[in-house]
Amino acid sequence: MTHSLNKLMKNIPYEVITGKEDIEFSSGIVCDSRNISEGCVFVCIHGHIFDAHRYIPEAVEKGAKAIIVSEDQDVFSDEELISLSERTGVAFLRVPDTRLALAIMSSSFFENPADQLELVGITGTKGKTTTSYMVHNILAEAGKDVGLIGTVSYIVSGEVKPASRTTPEAFELQSMLSDMVKSGSEICVMEVSSLGLVFERVHGCRFRVGAFTNLYTDHISQSEHVDMRDYLDAKLRIFEQSNCAVVNEDCTVGKEVAEYAGKFGPVYTFGINDYSDCRAGSLKTVRKKGVIGTEFFVTSPWYNGKVFVALPGRFNVHNALCAIAISGLFEIPFAAVRDALATVTVPGRIQMIPNNRNITILVDYAHNAASLEILLSTLREYCNGRLITVFGCGGNRSKTRRTEMGAVSGKFSDLTFVTTDNPRGEEPGDIIRDILEGLRPTGGAHRIEPDRTAAIQMAIAEAKDDDFVIIAGKGHENYQIFKDKTIHFDDVEVAGEALIRLNEENGRVGRDA
User: How far apart are the first and last CA of the chain?
Assistant: First the structure.
């Protein structure tokens, strides 16, 4: 299907620098220079690290039909762009905001698929992924045809695809929504990151429900948010395009968030208290058929009754309450809610690894001090043995995070295996030294093994009856990034292989005896 450029841009103020604005094209809209193909439209985004305007000559060489530039770009003069156009015929158009233009054009390219779906948007520092899986599973349990877009995976028409980022760039997002519409999906559950909101990736998406899970100190950096006020303001933008809101009232900023959301529509609160609209009481830690979780009584405008969520911790009760409130707004039967929560699993989020050794092995994405402390303190309630933690820290990231995580693991673990995560451009040994600066003052027992595979193997071999082995930091990731290469690496796979190896060794010992 071909598209006319000027029709896609009819709702965008623009200026033609040179060339024809009524060109026809069919090969898509691109904002990443690596994906430029002949006949496409290239939209130049000025990012924190890369300015795509610098790739204009490459885009011309690769055959882009039109290039959209920002009015504040200073990489090329109009004369230089006109010269390029005269030699190649490529059109150059100027807009006030290329990110917004990309979103509007992408939506028009796919005939506004968001308007044909009921959208659920979930934002917050933590809990987005787990809550989105809970909502997806509940809606599917109730017989709804539902898609999912989030950090771990994209689920379109029942097909699971690995995710590239929490909230995809606008063209990719609209393409997935279009695929959902074509396949007959009714609903899409979407994780919405703060940067996804700021960068207009979800522009044109009207959410039937916008949900807020919590706010923690994270994502504060030169490339993300300058401070917590900026971070919160970014999160709040979701309510400007939501029909109603679901808000965690137990969060430190819960009241402020609810007040802001109330400017745009009805607000439903949740919490572990006696006053929220959707609230939990009588919490009880439970292990059912080897699965650790929490049982609680929910009271809400939609449901009242006992619920078991197959994930441990108060934070997962909050996630479940958020999912329950969203389900209530969709008028889902309570039986579907209970059945889905009782069996919910989320890749890399307190993911249990089955074994026959009377130990509990968990893989989790906890990759900062706050997440790790919540995880370890929660698991302590279930553990009758030792907590053995395996973790490292990412390279080219905050050094403070490393010492903080080291201190947390030293304090809350009985034994820590310090290893690598994604070293990226740094030396693994330098990262480990930063971790040890926080760990050693706690006096916590620890061992150092830079090889993550070996560290996981050693931790599992070390575990005795009733011990918990927590493999933290990478969660659902299936890769490991080094300075000169990226390799396949999956904590779940490595843990499974370690168990097989141990069982084989034990079998040999038994035969030799």
Answer: 71
Same structural domain, 63 and 191: no
For residue 70, give the nearest of 50, 97, 104 by alpha carbon: 97
Residues, the chain? 513
CA distance 285 to 171: 44
- For residue 513, being part of any structural domain is answered with no
Q: Are residues 200 and 289 in the same domain?
A: yes
CA-nearest of 380, 374, 408 to 393 is 408
Q: Are 168 and 285 part of one and the same domain? A: yes
Q: Do residues 102 and 118 share a domain?
A: no
List CB contacts of 285: < 8 A, sequence separation 6 or more.
292, 293, 294, 312, 381, 382
Question: What residues make up the domain containing 332?
Answer: 112-343
Q: What is the pTM of this model?
A: 0.90
Q: The tokens of 318 are what?
A: 């909050």
Give the closest residue to 473 by CA, choosing from 455, 458, 461, 485. Answer: 455
User: How many structural domains does the chain have?
Assistant: 3
- CATH code (residue 45): 3.40.1390.10
User: CA-based angle 131:218:162, to the nearest 5?
Assistant: 50
The strands making up 15-18's β-sheet, listed across from edge to edge, are 15-18, 91-95, 66-70, 41-43, 29-30
- pLDDT tens per residue across all 513 residues of the chain: 789 999 999 999 999 999 998 999 888 999 999 999 999 999 999 987 789 999 999 999 999 999 999 999 999 999 999 999 999 999 999 999 999 999 999 999 999 999 999 999 999 999 999 999 999 999 999 999 999 999 898 998 778 888 877 889 999 999 999 999 999 999 999 999 998 999 999 999 999 999 999 998 665 565 566 688 899 999 999 999 999 999 999 999 999 999 999 999 999 999 999 999 999 999 999 998 889 999 999 999 999 999 999 999 999 999 999 999 999 999 999 999 999 999 999 999 999 999 999 999 999 999 999 999 999 999 999 999 999 999 999 998 888 999 999 999 999 999 999 999 999 999 999 999 999 999 999 999 999 999 999 999 999 999 999 999 999 999 999 999 999 999 999 999 999 999 999 988 876 444 343
CATH number, domain containing residue 182: 3.40.1190.10
Q: What are phi and psi of 349, to 5 degrees?
A: -120, 100
Residue 169 lies in a domain: yes
CA 359 – CA 148 distance, rounded (Å): 33
Q: Are residues 125 and 59 in the same domain?
A: no
